[in-house]
Amino acid sequence: MARGVPGGYRIRDTKGGRWWGDLYELCPDDLLTELNGAADQARVTALLKRYRALKR
Length: 56
Prior knowledge:
41% of the residues lie in helices and 30% in strands. The protein is α+β, with helices and mostly antiparallel strands. The radius of gyration is 11 Å and the shape is globular.
């Protein structure tokens, strides 16, 4: 699940009950759609890597 938090968006692990991943200042629409939809692990990993690379 992805939710807005102060300063941007974070990803919440609902099973572990904790935040994980980076804090995103802008809403990455395709990542949020994947997380709140099918949540295919390979697709989520690829999107996270892409957005992490763009932040650098």
